[in-house]
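Anyone up for a design puzzle?
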């Protein structure tokens, strides 16, 4: 009788064993795939962070290009006119503005100018320097020399002569 019962349930036991084996194999496959999904999600997150950094770099490059075009957008004759325009905002007399030879450096070209002005006090020289260095056209006052105007016919005139060396720059590509 026990033998008959086992024979009756033999197919069912075999089917249950196959189902348990299939569930075990499916579980292993699922766990491996879940691990792969986690690894892929981590890689995706890393790539997303890289993309954010690359976008920031691209924005920075665009800003640099905009600044370069802004800095380089100048004609040298316009620079002389701008120097003249800035100086005319103050009570000073421009005696001369002379461009010097360009000086080439690895990253930029420097265009120096010599200005000679006449004013009643040295504060105006400081105002001029402040206006030059705060101008959108990038000017750099490299050197300033001030001395009193020479005596004329034995009288002291009271004017100050200032010689200012001003540079502007153009960036190389």
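Challenge accepted. My sequence:
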């Amino acid at each position: 009788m026990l033998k008959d019962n086992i024979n009756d349930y033999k197919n069912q036991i075999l089917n249950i064993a196959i189902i348990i084996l299939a569930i075990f194999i499916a579980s292993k496959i699922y766990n491996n795939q879940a691990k792969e999904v986690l690894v892929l999600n981590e890689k995706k997150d890393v790539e997303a962070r890289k993309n954010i950094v690359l976008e920031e770099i691209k924005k920075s490059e665009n800003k640099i290009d905009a600044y370069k075009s802004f800095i380089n957008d100048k004609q040298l004759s316009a620079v002389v006119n701008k120097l003249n325009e800035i100086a005319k905002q103050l009570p000073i007399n421009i005696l001369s503005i002379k461009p010097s030879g360009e000086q080439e450096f690895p990253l930029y070209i420097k265009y120096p100018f010599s200005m000679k002005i006449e004013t009643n006090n040295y504060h105006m020289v400081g105002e001029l320097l402040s206006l030059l260095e705060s101008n959108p056209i990038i000017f750099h006052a490299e050197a300033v020399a001030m001395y009193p105007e020479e005596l004329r016919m034995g009288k002291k005139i009271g004017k100050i002569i200032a010689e200012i060396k001003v540079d502007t720059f153009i960036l190389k590509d």
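A detail worth pointing out: Residues 76-171 form a domain with the Alpha-Beta Plaits fold (CATH 3.30.70.60).
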